[in-house]
Amino acid sequence: xxxxxxxxxxxxxxxxxxxxxxxxxxxxxxxxxxxxxxxxxxxxxxxxxxxxxxxxxxxxxxxxxxxxxxxxxxxxxxxxxxxxxxxxxxxxxxxxxxxxxxxxxxxxxxxxxxxxxxxx
Length: 120
Description:
Elements: E1 14-18, E2 23-27, E3 37-43, E4 48-54, E5 69-74, E6 85-86, E7 92-98, E8 104-109, E9 114-117
Antiparallel strand pairs: 1-2, 3-4, 4-5, 5-6, 7-8, 8-9
C-alpha cells in the first residue's frame, strides 16, 4: 500500500502486509525513492512490482525531487531491482497498466498527459 504524504510531509513510503502472519513491513521513502511517493503499482509476472512515483507533497510540504521515476521492487526482499528511468519535467506517474503484447504502460501527469512504456 502506498500513496501521497500527509500534511507537511515530503515523500511517502510503502507498506507491505502479510495476510498469513498479519504482520507489516513499512519502507520509508528514503528506502525507495527519496522525496517521492508511489502513485501507482502493478504486479509483474516474476513476483515483482512496477511502481510509478511522483514528486507530489502533502499540504505544507516542500517539493524536493526534480522529476517522477518508475521503479521495480522485489516483493520478497523489499529492495529495488529495476533500473530507474527519469522523465524530464514530469512530476507524477499517475497510472501504470498492462498494455498490448505484455507491455506495461504508465501515464505521466503533464499537459497534455503523456503515455510512457517501461518493459515487457
